[in-house]
Amino acid sequence: MKYALIALLVIIILLGIFTCPQKSSIAPEIYKVVRIVDGDTFIAHIDARDVRIRLIGVDTPESVHPNKEVEHFALEASAFLKELLEGEEVFFIYDQNNSATNHKDRYERVLAYTYRARDSLFVNAEIIRQGYGHAYSRYPFTRLEEFLKLERDARHQKLGLWAETDEYPAISDSLVWFNAGSNKYHRQSCRYTSDKSLSMSKNEAIAKDFQACKVCKP
Ligand SMILES: [Zn+2]
């Protein structure tokens, strides 16, 4: 079982490398980290340019959005990414779901799975595993299930963002759940949710004009 998992992982990594449009060899290219922007974004030096990299599949609380206040745990998330990547070199793997946009989001940031070069630490997953961000389910990506599991485990252990404090007693209660293709949001315990349901913050659901379920009244 363990070897099957490792083999699968190797296949996924190789697929990622082979499907990346700019790469022709197996050895990934290594890039220098220039600076950290916030908990899920940083700048890397690629082909003599400074390029903004958005860690795919993970979302951390906002710290630099011009129109928003600094959210709870934003500074911690930003400091955590610094701890992982400042002064480091990285390599990237891209997700086939973004190949149509050449692996860029609408802000022209490069969407990538990022690995720390010296030990191959999978940075996107590490952020979620240690509770500094949640799985970002708004856009499709191949490793969603894996990231959702890491998020569930971090929540159960009340790590980082999921820890209860006097000031933020129930941040995890502010999350709601929804099903792909539906614009209703639910409590996690609702009979309309399942293992396949995705989560987002209640504020985000309201901002997106989602409707509260009349059964579970989230
Ligand atoms: Zn419901």
Name a few traits of the molecule.
single chain; OB fold (Dihydrolipoamide Acetyltransferase, E2P); five-stranded mixed barrel; 218 residues; alpha+beta; globular; 2 domains; 5 helices; binds zinc ion
Overview of this protein structure:
- Helix content is about 25%, strand content about 20%.
- The N and C termini lie far apart (about 40 Å).
- The strands form four sheets. The chain has a five-stranded mixed barrel.
- It is an alpha+beta fold.
- A hairpin with a 2-residue loop joins β1 and β2.
- It is globular, with a radius of gyration of 18 Å.
- The model has no long low-confidence stretch (mean pLDDT about 85).
- The protein folds into two domains: about 1-170, OB fold (Dihydrolipoamide Acetyltransferase, E2P); about 175-218, no CATH class.
- It has five helices and eleven strands.
- The protein has helices at about 1-20, 75-85, 125-130, 145-155, 200-205, and strands spanning about 30-40, 40-45, 50-55, 60, 90-95, 110-115, 135, 175-180, 185, 200, 210.
- The longest helix is centred in the N-terminal third of the chain and has 18 residues, at about 1-20.
- The structure holds zinc ion.
- Zinc ion (ZN) binds near residues 186, 190, 213 and 216.
Number of helices: 5
Order the strands across the largest sheet as they lie in space: 1-2-3-6-5
The third-level CATH topology of the largest domain is: OB fold (Dihydrolipoamide Acetyltransferase, E2P)
Mean pLDDT: 85
Order of helices and strands: HEEEEHEEHEHEEEHE
Helix content: 25-40%
In the CATH hierarchy, what is the architecture of the largest domain at level 2? Beta Barrel
- Cα radius of gyration in angstroms: 18 Å
The share of residues in extended strands comes to: 15-25%
Class from helix and strand fractions: alpha+beta
Hetero compounds: zinc ion
Q: Please summarize the sheet with the most strands.
A: 5 strands, mixed, barrel
Low-confidence runs of at least 5 consecutive residues:
none
N→C terminal distance: 40 Å
